Amino acid sequence: MSLQRLILNLHHFWADQGCYLAPTYDVEVGAGTMTPDTFFRVLGPRHWRTAYVQPSRRPTDGRYGENPNRVQKHHQYQVIIKPSPADIQRVYIESLRACGIDLRDHDLRFDEDDWESPTIGAWGVGWQVMLDGLEISQFTYFQQAGGLEVSPIPVEITYGLERLEMFIEGQDDMYNLQWSDDVTYRDLRLAEERQFSEYNFNKATVKSLREQFALAEKEAQMLVESRLPLPAYDQCLKCSHLFNLLDARGAISVTERVKMIAQIRTLVAQVARVFTAPESPAEGAA
Amino acid sequence: MEFLLEINVEEMPLAHVRTALSDMSEKLAKELAAARIPCEGLRSYSTTRRLILTADLAPGQADRDELITGPPKAAAFSADGAPTPAALGFARSKGVDVSALQVVQTEKGEYIGVRKAVKGRATTDLLAKILPGLITQLSFPKMMRWGTGTLRFSRPIRGLLCLLGGEIVPFALDGLASGNRTTGHKLHAPETIEVRSFADYKTLLQERHVLIDAEERKASILAQISALVAPLKAEMYPDPALLDKLANDVEAPFVVMGGFPDSFLQLPLEVLSTAMREGQKLFSVVKGGKQLPLFLGVADVTADTRGFIRTGHERVLKARLADARFFWEQDLKSGFQKSAPRLKQVLFQEKLGSYDDKAKRLEKLAAYLCGKIETCKKAAELSQAASLCKVDLVTDMVREFPSLQGTMGGLYAKAEGLPQPVVRAIAEHYLPAGADDASPASIEGAILSLADKIDSIVGVVGTGVQTSGSSDPFGLRRNAQGVCKIILDKKFDLPLDRLLEKAVSFYGDKLKLPKAEILDRLREFFAGRLRYLLDREGIRYDLINAALGAGLDNIHHAALRARALDALKNGPQFEPLILMAKRVNNILAGQTAPAVNPAHFVEKAERELYATSGIINDNVAPMIAKGDFLQAQKIIFRLQPVLNAFFEKVMVMAEETKLRKNRLALLQSIRKAMLQIADYGQVVVEGEKGSR
User: Fold this and answer.
1) Nearest CB to A69 within list B146, B319, B346
2) ipTM of predicted assembly, 2 dp
3) Which of B51, B158, B204, B548 is 20 to 30 A from B595 (CA-CA)?
4) What does B108-170 look like in DSSP terms, one character per residue?
């Protein structure tokens, strides 16, 4: 099997579960959780089911393409179902079978692991799902997002696609994975990992990153005041990614780190409040 | 009748399972007692997916007579004995004839009343009322909601099985109805089964790969492990916490043994075992004190016939160990001492600056402590350890495995050839990890740990964080307990106030609260932690209070005083002395007196008391100075007979002011002497206990 076949299997499976398949979001994010298809869907009372692939960038995890397990950009398969169904664990297990994993021969465990994201003011309760000792998914019942209690409660399932495919192919090196039948992960991603590691760690212009951060923050504030939460949130995501880049450059001092995270969190909380305000047009339009 | 309850949940953490079982058992027993339902053999079982209670209950409450009182007799019957409207109304409201009324003697006088036979209610009805509340009132450190429900619990509840005598006890919880069904192992027997009794339940589940008894699962794990390692003449490295967790987390325990390449054995043992334990919950295998390139894992399956589980773990572990080796080599290359300046980049607390600032304070505080502690001979090494003890926070290894903090510092310090006392102090300075954990073995480690903890406590409290509250996000309680434990274990005589003042002063102007307020808050806080430790030693709370009432500045001495009281509490001299001390307290209450003037004594008994107490004081002082409170207490006992004679012969509250004041002054000085040992007034003696 190949990674793209895995994605197709998951797409089929979750589409059959009534999920709308969202296109990959076009702003850099650190995790699938951060995209609008999760962040805004979990807020407010409306019921939603969605699934999508999200490339997730974590500049500090870059290893110049030399580590078989760590990369500065990996791919998450993100599922949000609100409200969480009573049989969701069973459905999740079915999804693994749909990916061709014969669970009779394997050890599948839901291991306590609560999730929290200070930047977007979100936390939840759940597990890391371990398959023969390998973490393949994060399974979380959201409790808060944007600093607000969520209701009804959504369940979030995040599959680490590279991990899962390594498991399926019995592969020790991520770069040896098949993306399609005749294209490998190495063909597609090695140069990118090398170049972006170089950029993230050594070349990114700190001064420019700081200026961009300040601009995005200002823009977000203006948009919050204009009661336009959706574009305001994009600017928050930009802040978050710029912060991660500055962090990878080792440019953030102790006090600055605390301050910048708080700045983003405050903005995101404002976005969440504007979005959920009764007079807001956003929920209907979203 | 046999009662059986199973709450089917999604995977609950071990700590939550434990709380739930003990709280539910306790509350159920209490509720049943209140409902007058006899209950025997209440037992609990669990897996990470099931909370189980079973017991033998009476089928219902016993029938009984109930006495209902009405109006007073005087208002119920007129002078000629005829019932008044009040009596008639009462009888009507209770559905009886007025002739059934009888006179009842109560505390308030004679009333009329009626006896009615009350039919006992069926246990199943009572359970149906009790159980929903019992479940919804359970509380966990972190609670969650799910779906559209409003219930808060540890993890989602997915099923309720509840039987009494084989019949369903019907109740509902957040839209879920109780029944007689459950399911077997999540992957290997997920189909629904019907249950009639506990024995039935246990057997059906066992056939469906679920062992409901955690002890049985633990025994099975250990038996499988010894079968695997015995042929190698090796053993599992004991890890009780991991064993408990794994026994909770699986319903069908199956042990797999696998290996990793020999080359990784070059890594320090601590690194290997942490990578195995924390990353993948694997046990290490040792032989003659040496680590073997093997691991033991516990899976939730019935077999690993194709070896997928073993090879899966091997693959993941190999990648983890490769990472660990990369970190180890990387950190060695960066250099431990050379990395110290990077502490400037690591935040200690938001308002308290970086770990570099902290390290500088620790050097000063450790130096102060070393000056106060006689056995501290290696001031230079201690100072070096203080400056380096936090450096491992910037290493890749500790960033990956935070629990290795301290340990890695010690290993890297050793790798750079630093002296043994420095290495040990760094390695030990986070100890003790809990009330049952050992304090640092080396004196330098103990001092550095004290300095680190006190600095943290003073800083956090100084920023205005409250010491009360059930959660302990800043580790205040843990740290204060560590301080008390080290002081007790190491028998350090330290003036707490002075120590705290020093720690405050090293913060300069960083703290929000003034020094006096920080000290006020911390005295009571430390007292609380010391009380907790002494209570764990089994010392009565009133003895602890009495000992602490005599002062807390020297924590070691406060504990010795409590232990002395505890050792002597059953002796014949103890209670008479307490009663005498209470008498002295009573007579002195609200009185003031100047200093004693021996010229004003008139009675022989008061002169004798004065003389004896002087001698006793002289004898007690050196005992107190050297901390021998057992001996000091024994000497104080001698006060009792002379005080007794004094009270018998001498009128303290004499008419003449001069005599009275002088006698009060004498008692005052004696009380002061006794207060060096304990505030005896706080000791509870027979006859007083009921009123507390």
Assistant:
1) B319
2) 0.94
3) B548
4) TEEEEEEEEEEPPPBHHHHHHHHHHHHHHT---SS-B--TT----BSS-EEEEEEEETTEE--
